[in-house]
Amino acid sequence: MFTIKSQAEIDKMRKSGEILYETLQIIKKNTVPGVTTRELNRIAEEHILKKNAIPSFKGYDVGIPGVPPFPASICASVNEEVVHGIPGLNMLKDGDIISIDVGVYYNGYHADAARTFAVGNISEDAKKLIDVTKQCFYEGLKQMVIGNHIRDISAEIQKCAENAGFSVVRDFVGHGIGAKMHEPPEIPNYVTKRRGIKLEKGMTIAVEPMINAGDYGVKVLDNNWTVVTIDGSLSAHYENTVAITDNGPLILTKF
């Protein structure tokens, strides 16, 4: 069952979100040709720890036999990698795109956000994918109001992506968030048969369109974490943590 947060709890999540936003800005500044994703991870972890916070993802255990805990503080997914890319020694090249997903735990509460960044000069097609993915989030945001249902969010995200000629990943979805990184409810980026729960004041959700330039099919690599497009097409990711309030949706991870 989803949890309703008090204003004090939302304020705590906003502080986690502020640290997370700072982290993403630092990563963006350092996302240049020649840098390794491991170095970006080091930079992110250093900033989070400096703020007396904890990287939510490092050591995250999904509880599935054979799947090791996630080994890094950020997910760094390059080009056809959709989500959960493990930082390593691979150097970014001019023309790459990279999706950075970060979680921050501070004072008892998590925040979660993701962005896709350009590495140097990228193609017009890649720019369009990044821009549309961000737009899809904001189309969904308009529906994050008291009394609407989860499916209202999903429908706008899917419509935005498909109208642009892109596809929506089905295998991974957004989620509730708070004292735990992943809480009910699930927030699909596509329409399902279920309306989903009605949005209420005090709900906090992480909404994260994952949009592919080609087909929506994905697969998990042998490291049991990194998800890639089956057809090798580019993928982009845009996520924020949002609180449902009397005055509409409040983004907790953008300042």
Automatic annotation (TrEMBL):
This is Methionine aminopeptidase. Belongs to the peptidase M24A family. Methionine aminopeptidase type 1 subfamily. GO terms for molecular function: initiator methionyl aminopeptidase activity; metal ion binding; metalloaminopeptidase activity. Its cofactor is Co(2+); Zn(2+); Mn(2+); Fe(2+). GO terms for biological process: proteolysis. Gene3D superfamilies: Creatinase/methionine aminopeptidase superfamily. Monomer. Its EC number is 3.4.11.18. It comes from the Bacteria. Substrate binds at H84, H182. The keyword Ion transport does not apply. InterPro entries: Creatinase/aminopeptidase-like (IPR036005), Pept_M24 (IPR000994), Pept_M24_MAP (IPR001714), Pept_M24A_MAP1 (IPR002467). The keyword Nucleotide-binding does not apply. It catalyses: Release of N-terminal amino acids, preferentially methionine, from peptides and arylamides. A divalent metal cation 2 binds at D112, H175, E208, E239. Removes the N-terminal methionine from nascent proteins. The N-terminal methionine is often cleaved when the second residue in the primary sequence is small and uncharged (Met-Ala-, Cys, Gly, Pro, Ser, Thr, or Val). Requires deformylation of the N(alpha)-formylated initiator methionine before it can be hydrolyzed. Residues 11-246 form the Peptidase M24 domain. CDD domains: MetAP1. Keywords: Aminopeptidase, Hydrolase, Metal-binding, Protease. A divalent metal cation 1 binds at D101, D112, E239. Signal peptide: none annotated. It is an enzyme of class 3 (hydrolase). Binds 2 divalent metal cations per subunit. Has a high-affinity and a low affinity metal-binding site. The true nature of the physiological cofactor is under debate. The enzyme is active with cobalt, zinc, manganese or divalent iron ions. Most likely, methionine aminopeptidases function as mononuclear Fe(2+)-metalloproteases under physiological conditions, and the catalytically relevant metal-binding site has been assigned to the histidine-containing high-affinity site. The gene is map. One of its GO terms (cellular component) is cytosol.
